[in-house]
Amino acid sequence: MKSSKSAANELSNCLPSNSNSVISIPSTAYEKIKKWSEERKTTLESVLNYLIEQEAERLTLLTYADEASDHDTQRYSKIKEITELCTASFSELSSESEMFQVICAVEDLYKTLLKKGIFSAKVDPISIIDSRRIDVTQDNYYYFAGDLANYTARWFGTFDLYMNVVFCPEQTVMFVGMPNNVNVSAIVFERLYRLFCQIKSNYKKTFGAKIKASEKNNLTDMHLSRLSQQLEYTKACIGDEDDFKHLCGYAEKNYSFALR
């Protein structure tokens, strides 16, 4: 194993040519960076840049989240902690909640996850994984669940896919992305989907007996569609153009049949 001095000498090559500074890091940290660079067939500089960009992006997103909080009134993810945080954030929501309350719950969760450093703010192409799949009927997907999936993916830096019955034995929504991000996406989407299904059920009960079933269904679907579109105003977003390209590339390679 290289000494700290040797590691510092090699890492000094990553500095600008006009810099006289030398960065000293523990030999164990150097070995980790070196291993990552070898696994990715890239340079030490590229690995360091990735790590720096990841942390800088996380801090930038957290700053934006703090500014927007003033409303007008790896594969081993932290699933247990994520579930507990999601449960706490959505505990006050019900089918009677207004959409601004849903938006506030999502934004508060987003900021909490940023503060705890649970998100990956940048996408590492070799670390992208699939989330678990959530059952979604075709009608629900068309009228509101598709919007919920799209918004959830945007909020938490993932890419959403709908597995249609034409190609798969089931109808499901799934997400691809970094490990913690896909777990957050799956949990949040499932909870929002269940909430909207309850809203749908309750809304149908408000119609009188004289209204035809087909008209009830149509009016209910339109109502849910309008509600879901209000979530577009949620102030939460992760990822840039490069990250999106990595996620699209993964989806195209593994699930080209599901791309729409």
Work out the radius of gyration: 22 Å
Q: What proportion of the residues form beta strands (DSSP E)?
A: 5-15%
Enumerate how many helices there are, as a single number: 9
Q: What ranges have pLDDT less than 50 throughout 5 or more consecutive residues? A: 1-10, 70-76
Which series of helices and strands comes N to C? HHHHHEEHEEHHH
Q: How many beta-strand elements?
A: 4
Instruction: Give the class from helix and strand content and strand pairing.
Output: mainly alpha
Oligomer: single chain
The termini sit apart by 50 Å
Topology diagram in text:
Blueprint: H1 4-11, H2 27-39, H3 44-67, H4 79-90, H5 99-115, E1 129-130, E2 134-135, H6 138-156, E3 159-163, E4 172-177, H7 179-204, H8 213-229, H9 241-255
Antiparallel strand pairs: 1-4, 2-4, 3-4
Verbal overview:
The protein is mainly α and 260 residues long. It is 58% helix and 6% strand. The chain has helices at 4-11, 27-39, 44-67, 79-90, 99-115, 138-156, 179-204, 213-229, 241-255; strands spanning 129-130, 134-135, 159-163, 172-177. Strands 1, 2, 3 and 4 form a 4-stranded antiparallel beta sheet that branches. α2 packs across α3 and α3 (44-67) runs antiparallel to α5 (99-115). The longest helix has 26 residues, at 179-204. It is elongated and about 80 Å long. The termini are far apart.
